[in-house]
Amino acid sequence: MIPIAEAVAPPNLKAATHSDRSPGSIAFLVALWLALAIAVLSLTVLLVDAFIDGQSRLDSGLLTNYTSQVFPEQAGARAAILGSIWVISTTAVLAIPLGIAAGLYLEEFADSERWYNRLIETNISNLAAVPAIVYGMLTAGFALAIGMERRIVLSGAIALALLILPVIIIATRESVRAVPQEIRHGSLALGATPLTTVWRQTLPAAIPGIATGSILALSRALGEAAPLLLLGGLVFVNYDPNGLMSGFTTLPIQIFNWASQPQEAFQQVASAAIILMLGLLLVMNAVAILIRNRYQSRW
Amino acid sequence: MATFTTKPSTTQSSQNGERAPAPLLHTLEHAPRTLPAYPSPVVMECSDVNIYYGDFRAVTDVNMAFAKNEITALIGPSGCGKSTLLRSLNRMNDLIPQARVEGSITFHSKGIYDDDVDPIEVRRRIGMVFQKPNPFPKSIYDNIAYGPRVTGMKVDNMDDHVEQALRRAALWLEVRDKLKQSAYGLSGGQQQRLCIARTIAVEPEVILMDEPCSALDPIATSRIEDLMVELRENYSIIIVTHNMQQAARIADRTAFFTADVDVVTGERTGRLVEYDLTTNIFQNPSDERTEAYIQGRFG
Amino acid sequence: MTALAGSAGLSVVVTIGIFFALLLPSLDFFREVRITDFLTGTRWAPTFADASFGVVPLVTGTLWTTAIGLAIAVPVGLAAATYLSEYASDRTRRILKPVLEVLAGIPSVVYGYFALFFVAPVLLRSIFGIELGTFSVLAAGLVLGIMIVPTVASISEDAMSAVPAGLRHGSLALGANKMRTTLRVVYPAAISGITASIVLALSRAVGETMIVALAAGTRAQVVLDPREAGQTMTGFIAQTATGESTPGTLTYNTLFAVGLLLFVITLVINLIAARFVRRIREVY
User: Fold this and answer.
1) What is the chain A residue with the closest CA to C93?
2) What stretches of A198-263 show up as alpha helix (H) in DSSP?
3) Which of A170, B120, B137, C183 is the most buried (most CB within 10 A)?
């Protein structure tokens, strides 16, 4: 089709003052980049700094030696590593079943019109934002009330389990919510009870999501030191923890203690332990992401 | 009866109920007489326009010109590329990653995809009204004042300017007492007229409308149609519509598009079939595909 | 079924437990120390012979680290959210989001180490030439800010991404540029989510323990200059808890009185945040 336009002077469509390339817009974009650079740079410097400080102590002694007040050069994280394993395993045993049960109840059975269910929901979101250190105070008070020793693996696990319970509940609810209704209806139509349906259909379908959420929650517990400080002692542990009633220390507590010492050798072993702990966290997160990617989008 | 035969332009008759296009201004020596010559100056023109999303060609070889102070309707079955073409007329397509326009689209003979052109200036001159009313979550007044403010327009008296825009959009009487109230309190039809008023407030020359009435009830639709006919005096309007009666009622010219379906991939590529005075398209189409569509036989 | 309901109900028991665990020792504490002295006193020396229990120095310590933290986290977090939501290509987003997730996943004790051994001596003293000691609320606050950047960024980004694309298109179609569309359409539309992210960040900053315990110092004083050392509420709890504190003693009860104050402050902040989050859902 051929145009039949009368001659009109071509309009000026050049960059106006309010363009995306105006000084103001560019300054704005540069500010955004700068902010991101701060975040990326902080992360890089933090990791590099820890690695430089700690590399001289990344040896087998770090894994096999107990800590030492007298010979910081030989201090190791043996008790802390074993303590972390004990405490985190116990935390998992306590928190995961409880969290899944609570999440299933709220998502599948609870009538959200009822005041008590609403109370529970509000309460859980509030609990998720309570400072970590308060969970330590709760556990200390609880231990005192029932006459339990504060400085043992079980106390530590209770504190951390309470801390991550809201996270697991929320992860469970989200995974269960993602299970399509057809799966539930299919089961119910065959005459299964709601409870059987949840147990045999909904829960298995939601397991990957719950597993991912639980691992991420446990990795938070692994790095958390504040609530354990309230359980007292926990610092110079020169023995392997051997049960729920055993005294213990954990990696973050040990790092905190070493970092608080004036000698430079303690600083080095602290950063070596940081590298170790970050490595463990990386593995846990990688597993979580793997599970998420592997089982994602099955429906 | 409809074939690819050419129609001499002299046979065109003005049977459009509301306004007959102005008589021919001049005849062109070099133009093949396949279509009527334009009675009004051309405001925008597409030459050999192809629009791609990555490798996928969404619109192929469009050649057409839009006349000043007329309403041009783009009709056709879904997937025929009419909305894609509309969005490329004011470079809203730039927002879609991988979208690419080949060929030339001009505004008063100036290519809007030229290197020295700022898309922001293009959009100020060529406004757009969307399918779903999208007022900002601000007051009615601020919705109108927003455009002049952010484009750095020199406005002597903003209150007057807002009033003028609302009057032109036939909304003033309904909202003059609640200018400070949220635009979300308006009905859907009022919201759409507010969006038109908002567009008018930056004083564009062309207004693109992407199915502006598809989310509205019949009464609101007819108010917007009346408004478009009024606005034609000052603006050139290009409207995409699914509603053939709407095109027949208000458009001076109508372009019919169709989709070529790739049998392997199922991808649809839009193609301009016929572009003529609305009266010809609806009463005497030259292409059998147009006729079939008009008579509701497909699409 | 009952077991499931019981598990959910446990959360309420936990809350009540927290309340009593904090309240009972605090009541003992307030039998010995007048509550007005506690809240308004400006000398905090609970273990001295002439013990004094004015909590104001701890509160100002917390105020300093929180204020410095937010001064970092709010602009950086908001800018990161803006970039990710409004500007970044999919590819950039795929690179930058994990960076924020990793920042969020680093334990706070590691941040504390970073504040104590890098930010204070290297960054602030050597590079910027700021005169400060080993411990300062400045170094602690800066690193605290970096730690809560992901909190601000991720919640703000969610809120900004939830703003319907139609609003942005409406603005761009009027000839507004990207910056103005962001500042004047996206931000106002996402304001409740952005505010919620800031309030949650505030609550995390107030409750954060390990960074301030390592890097802010243990001198409880009314801090006037951010280069000084100071003690926060959480810092005091951490320091006292790691020492000897026998249940029933005044020192032990002091811990819980400070803990109760901390809990009440964060609870109020969280309730405000919840308000804003609820409002997000009503906007569009």
Assistant:
1) A36
2) 203-223, 226-229, 251-260
3) B120
pLDDT (0 to 100) of residue A297:
55
| Contact (Cβ atoms closer than 8 angstroms) between residue B274 and residue B284 | no
d(CA C81, CA C161): 9
Tokens of A216: 């991420």
Q: B35 contacts in A (CB within 8 Å)?
A: 1
Which of C21, C100, C266 comes nearest A131 by C-beta? C266
pLDDT band of residue C46 (cuts 50, 70, 90) is confident
Residue A15: per-residue pLDDT: 65
Q: What is the mean pLDDT of residues A242-264?
A: 90
Which of chain A's residues have a Cβ under 8 Å away from the Cβ of C204?
A: 129
Q: Which chain B residue is nearest to residue C165, measuring alpha carbons?
A: B134
Q: Which chains touch C (3 or more CB pairs under 8 A)?
A: A, B
Q: Which residues contact C155 (CB under 8 A, 6 or more apart)?
A: C193, C194, C196, C197, C200
How large is the ipTM? 0.90
Structure token pair of residue A237:
């542990």
Of A25, A45, A99, nearest to C179 by CB-CB distance is A25
CA B70 to chain centre: 10
Pairs from A203-206 (Cβ < 8 Å, separation ≥ 24): A203/A100, A203/A104, A203/A176, A205/A179, A206/A172, A206/A175, A206/A176, A206/A178, A206/A179
* CB-based contact C110 A110, cutoff 8 Å: no
Cα–Cα distance measured from residue B138 to residue C189, given in angstroms and rounded to the nearest whole number? 9
CA distance A165 to chain C (A): 8
Q: What percent of chain A has pLDDT over 90?
A: 44
Joined tokens for residue C282: 């009503």
Integer Cα distance of A263 and A74 in angstroms:
13
Please tell me the distance in Å from B49's CA to the nearest CA on chain A.
12
Q: Give alpha helix (H) positions in B89-178.
A: 119-125, 140-150, 158-168, 172-175
Which helix (H) or strand (E) covers residue B248, if one does? helix B244-250
Residue C278 has pLDDT above 90, yes or no: no
**Whole-structure pTM value:** 0.86
Phi and psi at residue A70, in whole multiples of 5°? Answer: -95, -40
Q: In tens digits, what is the pLDDT along chain B, a chain of 299 residues? A: 333 333 333 333 334 444 444 433 333 333 332 344 445 688 999 999 999 998 899 999 999 999 888 999 999 998 889 999 999 999 999 988 889 999 999 999 899 999 989 999 999 999 999 999 999 999 999 999 999 999 988 899 999 999 999 999 999 999 999 999 999 999 999 999 999 999 999 999 999 999 999 988 999 999 999 999 999 989 999 999 988 889 999 999 999 999 888 888 888 899 999 998 888 888 888 888 998 888 876 54
Answer for the pair A194, A109: CB distance below 8 angstroms, yes or no.
yes
Beta-carbon separation of B92 and C176 below 8 A: no
Residue with tokens 């020396």: C45
Average pLDDT value for chain A: 87
Q: Which residues of chain B have a CB within 8 Å of the CB of A20?
A: 118, 120
Judged by DSSP in three states, C54 sits in coil
Tokens of B249: 């009622």
Residue in B201, B213, B192 with CA at minimum distance from that of residue B166: B201
Is the CB of A259 less than 8 angstroms away from the CB of C106?
no
Helical spans, DSSP H, in chain A: 23-54, 60-64, 78-104, 115-127, 132-146, 153-177, 181-189, 194-197, 203-223, 226-229, 251-260, 264-295
CB-based contact C169 B90, cutoff 8 Å: no
| DSSP category for residue B20 | P
Report whether pLDDT(A225) > 70.
yes
Please give the Cα distance from C77 to C221 (Å, whole number). Answer: 31
The predicted structure's pLDDT at residue B18: 42
